[in-house]
Amino acid sequence: ELVLIQSPATLSLSPGERATLFCRASQSVRSYLAWYQQKPGQAPRLLIYDASKRATDIPARFSGSGSGTDFTLTISNLEPEDFAVYYCQHRSNWPPYSFGQGTKLEIK
Amino acid sequence: QVQLVQSGAEVKKPGASVKVSCKASGYTFTNYPMHWVRQAPGQRLEWMGWINADNGDTIYSQKFQSRVTISRDISATTVYMELSSLTSEDTAVYFCAKVMTTAFAFDIWGQGTRVTVSS
Q1: Strands B113-117 and B10-12
Q2: pLDDT tens, B69-117?
Q3: How many CA atoms lie within 13 A of B28 on its CB side?
Q4: A9 CB within 8 Å of a chain B CB
Q5: Closest residue in A to B96 (Cα–Cα)
Q6: Are B57 and B69 spatial neighbours (Cβ–Cβ below 8 Å)?
């Protein structure tokens, strides 16, 4: 079964700074990786799909990159509303379409 | 607008079953698969399975294969997820999620249904 490992587990930054989150797959997922943001008590929100494509209405400060096994989500110029938990998810050739364990982005 | 509205919170005893519904609106129901994802308290998102809303074909995570049934009612534009033989480890929020048009990613999510399993 394909496993996604996210790092760091927690990232403490201040508004205006740049956040870099990582997701590593145990085997290649080509570019079939998505990123989601989740706030407490809410459903996840799609940010990035196919590794680097922004979903509808997602601000340009969110960007994704990578292919194969190593992926990055970058949030430039952090806004107060960006502090949340972020998950990556793969779509390999066969399920389960698992998620990473999440990175909590907290205010420093 | 496109939305998914789920049924309300449930409290169940160990060994019981629960059936959660997900009412879709704002798009052609049969054009998009529907997936189910759960999240236990403080844990990561966990993919459970999906249904082809057109022909009813299903694929389940091996973890839930023996206990989960996903079904749909086309006339009601509603998808159901039934989980049997509940234990305390099934206490979680259950989400339905629609796959987007052009890629495999979940662009629309239901609001979540909290299922609590307790004696």
Answers
A1: parallel
A2: 999 999 999 999 999 999 999 999 999 999 988 888 999 999 999 999 9
A3: 4
A4: no
A5: A43
A6: no
